[in-house]
Amino acid sequence: MYGETWGNGPPAVLALHGWRRSHADFAAALGPGSPGDPPPTMAPDLPGFGATPEPPGPWGSPDYADAVAALLRSADGPDGPVVVVGHSLGGRIAVRLAAAHPDLVGALVLTGAPLVRVGGRRRPPVAYRLARAMHRVHLVGEGRMEKARRRHGSADYRAAEGVMRDVLVRLVNETYDDALGVLADRRCPVELVWGDDDAEAPPAVARALAEALPQARVTWCPGAGHLTPLTAPAELRAAVRRALACSSS
Known about the structure:
It is a single chain. The chain is α/β, with parallel strands linked by helices. It has 2 domains: 3-117 and 175-248, 3-Layer(aba) Sandwich (Rossmann fold); 126-163, no CATH class. Helices cover 42% and strands 14% of the residues. It is built from 11 helices and 7 strands. A 7-stranded mixed beta sheet has the order 1-3-2-4-5-6-7, sandwiched between helices.
């Protein structure tokens, strides 16, 4: 993986960015653009984003978590458990990493992470469901089916190509109850930093996570929206410092 390390000394923080984003999102909160003396931070571009090549297949969050674990165990990795900051996709990976590799994670800071479903899932339009059914029985060709996908799919789906589209489909169909249960049992320290105007992972998601993780502390960021690393860097930085203090005590 490509990316950057910020600060002096072995990394104490690992920052994982969101879908269609890069490590640069964390510069204002934890990198060169942050005030004071930010903690030593490792901020990679996840496979398929930024400067890092795509994964070799349709990875899910467990595959990404294993790749991140290998990075942490590498020669350039930290000396001990780190605070993992996960935004959106990065939050999906962070909880898998903490559940599967507890020796690597001292605490979590999750922000805008769609880890629980609230309000039910939106069904695709009837026209799209019909086209999909006809495509399965070879009554609609791939060209017409692709037009339907681009017309009715989400912005992320329309922008994704090749293996990254398959990665997205796998990710949005995942559930995380098992990983959250492990974190609750372990009492892994968790900070939730949430925009109260987040349309991608609404506030109801944070409230549900706070119920699933009794040890979690919630920080609400008025008007911050989904891109909290850019719109609420001070709140995110403060949560990271609390998590560092908690994980070292």
